[in-house]
Specification:
Layout (H helix, E strand, L loop, with lengths): L20 E12 L2 E12 L3 E5 L6 H9 L6 E6 L5 E4 L13 H4 L8 H10 L15 H13 L5 E5 L7 H18 L2 E5 L3 H7 L2 E5 L5 E5 L1 H5 L2 H7 L1 H14 L26 H9 L3 H5 L3
Parallel strand pairs: 3-7, 3-8, 5-6, 6-7
Antiparallel strand pairs: 1-2, 1-4, 8-9
């Protein structure tokens, strides 16, 4: 039987047999300026699934995401995307010229027009509706990340790709944003590819983990519990990190079946009696303290 956590390369079988595959990388490698950025990358994303890519700086995580989106052309291997697939992308970095007069509502419509009501509603889901008429360069790091995610969600994507979405957020903001990601996944029934350095959140909040080592290879992949105990993961992050993650998972785990997967009907979602409340409620509560500054930014 295939053991997903020992996978190094070769076709990966979908882990949710009843869910359609949205996108797949098979043996993808990208070589630039005489150097391999990634090699033999295999990845499957299904509808309703959150897949996280982790690894050290320079391992090729962002390059992997860009290959999946079609932004980077692979040197070898194949990229499969479902025909008609709608994607939403939040890049790791976005530099906005402070001399450029650009309001949030105009940023939301740079590539496509949307009804004003949809823009307001989507910004509200992320807790930043009060920022609609603010200049983008006046936003805080947390506000900008939420605005960019709202922009990606406006398309009602089948696949949402988030590159370091919690960058610039404090710990409370990180927790809130992960709750929003899960809430949006459930609301849109979309697949999510998440790139993150936050191992605690990755292990607690995602369905599948793909670990990329320093040479741009997949060293292990599978459910978070299996990956955290894999030798490839231990070589990258160390036993102390793995032990800390094991304690964290024990404190935060949802109900799971004997195989270690989330039991049917017990997917850890936001709301339904959890302390966090709904993703939209959490976002709104967190943004309350920022509303006046954001709304007054002009």
């Amino acid at each position: 039987m295939h053991d997903p956590a020992t996978h190094t390369h070769g076709p990966i079988a979908p882990v949710l047999p009843d869910r359609p595959v949205l996108a797949r990388l098979e043996g993808v490698g990208i070589r630039r300026a005489g150097r391999w950025l990634i090699r033999e990358i295999d990845l499957v994303i299904q509808r309703g699934e959150i897949v996280s890519v982790i690894g050290p700086n320079g391992a090729g995580k962002t390059t992997t995401a860009r290959a999946l989106l079609g932004i980077e052309e692979p040197t070898v291997g194949t990229v499969h995307r479902t025909p008609g697939l709608t994607t939403g992308y939040v890049p790791q970095l976005l530099s906005v010229d402070r001399t450029l007069p650009l309001k949030v509502r105009h940023l939301m419509e740079l590539t496509a027009r949307f009804p004003a009501g949809e823009i307001e509603e989507t910004l509200g889901l992320l807790g930043v509706a009060q920022c609609a008429d603010s200049q983008v360069h006046t936003l805080s790091g947390g506000e900008l990340r939420r605005v960019l995610m709202a922009r990606a969600l406006l398309r009602r994507p089948d696949l949402l790709v988030l590159d370091e979405p919690t960058q610039g957020l404090d710990v409370s903001g990180e927790v809130d944003l992960y709750e929003i990601i899960r809430s949006m996944r459930d609301r849109l029934d979309c697949g999510v590819l998440l790139i993150s350095h936050d191992l605690h959140m990755v292990m607690a909040q995602t369905d599948q983990v793909v670990c990329v080592n320093g040479s741009g290879h997949v060293c292990c992949s599978g459910p978070p519990r299996m990956v955290a105990d894999h030798q490839g993961f231990l070589r990258l992050f160390g036993r102390r990190t793995a032990d800390a993650l094991a304690f964290y998972r024990h404190q935060h785990d949802p109900v799971r079946d004997p195989a270690g997967d989330t039991a049917p009907g017990h997917r850890p979602s936001v709301g339904a009696g959890t302390e966090a409340g709904t993703g939209a409620e959490t976002a709104t509560a967190t943004a309350t303290g920022e509303a006046q500054r954001c709304g007054d930014a002009g």
